[in-house]
Amino acid sequence: SRIKKEKIILHVGRFFRQLHSKRQDVLVEIFKELVSQHTKLMKGWKLVLIGTIEDKAYYNEVKELAKGLPIDILIDVSRETLMEYYKKSKIYWHATGYEIDENISPEKVEHFGITTIEAMAAGCIPIVLGKGGQVEVLGNELSELLWQTKGQCVDKTIKVINGTIDNSRIKKEVLKQVKKFDENVFAQKLWKMF
Length: 194
Fold this sequence. Notes:
The protein is built from 8 helices and 6 strands.
């Protein structure tokens, strides 16, 4: 059953501050900028944050930031619902390690980026922070979608939405890249993680 892609930017991750925080606060700020700067283009788009709450205060802070914006925050969803969102979202965002110097604090960046791979496998276009494992997950052919500053994230997202970046080429590369992380590599990495 092919689920039709909708105007959704998705992020999946736990809500917490410590260590490699997923930085949903940064994503909300970027989305706010997108909506206010590009009102017409962003009409009908929404940001969906899916996760679990590990830090109630941080979660409340993100919720407060998201007030009045087309942002849905979904907590403790089933695996089935999560998969559905991967399938219907057009873009996947990720900001772990934002403003972190990897050389000084390597533990604060994303080591691997399993959610990014899941999103890519479902045909989402990944626009993710270019640090840690995310760089490897996107590979050379998709490196133009990596960002370091909020402005770059806004810029790249706009290019994907308005078609300045050839989305059909990107989608092909996304699926090629996912195949590289075949079961083998994937299993080994997961094993190391646990």
